[in-house]
């Protein structure tokens, strides 16, 4: 998905940052539906500030890709809304969104008193997000702590300096990040998450099977070639085997296709992606 040039007042993140605007676009479209699975009242403001989506590309592979992104983004948002809400209901008060992007859960979900929610992303992303939220006079419903950091580098120092308490249980969400990291970076990031996690901590992220049909199609589609270069592949081992070998027990793993069908939606393919939650042993 591509977006037109930046608005005059607010600098729009480029490169991988635009993928967060793409997710905001998916959430804005879903929020406008009568049968919406969630409501994000800020999503449209981000898309507008980014200049709005470019004119739709040609039909064919591009249109198929948009359908998959839309289905994945909608089911993913709902799955992880439920995950975070349930964790808070179960008493978890320390939450970390790694690669938070334009996620507005701090504002749009309700949180018990005493909840602290850390958002880690690149500095330019957090600056853009704050500028747009300020234009809407948005007020967070939890204590929100933003942590500018490179998640391919030493982000743990910045997060602990910002107040993360590793001896307490943490609920982690790594949503929409791993495919943009290479195998080393993805493995290191998840290992660091484990090191910072007291027993009983929770971790959620999306997983893919080894099916590369969608990626192959992206690379072969001229309008999507630039996006395809951002994708570095993520973990080089299935998450469902990596996690138990690294101190986590998988509690739930659901395929997007199953969730889409359950919510009465189409499930465009290839159907290789899903979402999981694991607990630290
Ligand atoms: C597809 S968006 C997902 C955003 C959000 N989690 C969501 O689901 O809407 C990818 C996010 O990863 C962030 N990101 C990618 N590489 C990063 C890095 N090395 N360090 C920090 N953030 C990064 C981007 O800035 C962007 O916000």
TrEMBL record:
EC class name: transferase
Q: What EC identifiers does the entry list?
A: 2.1.1.-
Entries under NCBIfam families matching the protein: mthyl_TIGR00027
Please verify whether the record's keywords include Hydrolase.
no
Q: What is this protein called?
A: S-adenosyl-L-methionine-dependent methyltransferase
Q: Which family does it belong to?
A: Belongs to the UPF0677 family.
Q: List keywords of the entry alphabetically.
A: Methyltransferase, S-adenosyl-L-methionine, Transferase
Organism this protein belongs to: Frankia torreyi
Q: State the Gene Ontology terms under molecular function.
A: methyltransferase activity
> Cross-referenced Gene3D superfamilies, in alphabetical order?
Vaccinia Virus protein VP39
Q: Which PANTHER family match?
A: S-ADENOSYL-L-METHIONINE-DEPENDENT METHYLTRANSFERASE YKTD-RELATED (PTHR43619), S-ADENOSYL-L-METHIONINE-DEPENDENT METHYLTRANSFERASES SUPERFAMILY PROTEIN (PTHR43619:SF2)
Output the GO biological process annotations, alphabetical, semicolon-separated. Answer: methylation
The task this protein performs is described as: Exhibits S-adenosyl-L-methionine-dependent methyltransferase activity.
Question: Has UniProt tagged this entry with the keyword Methyltransferase?
Answer: yes
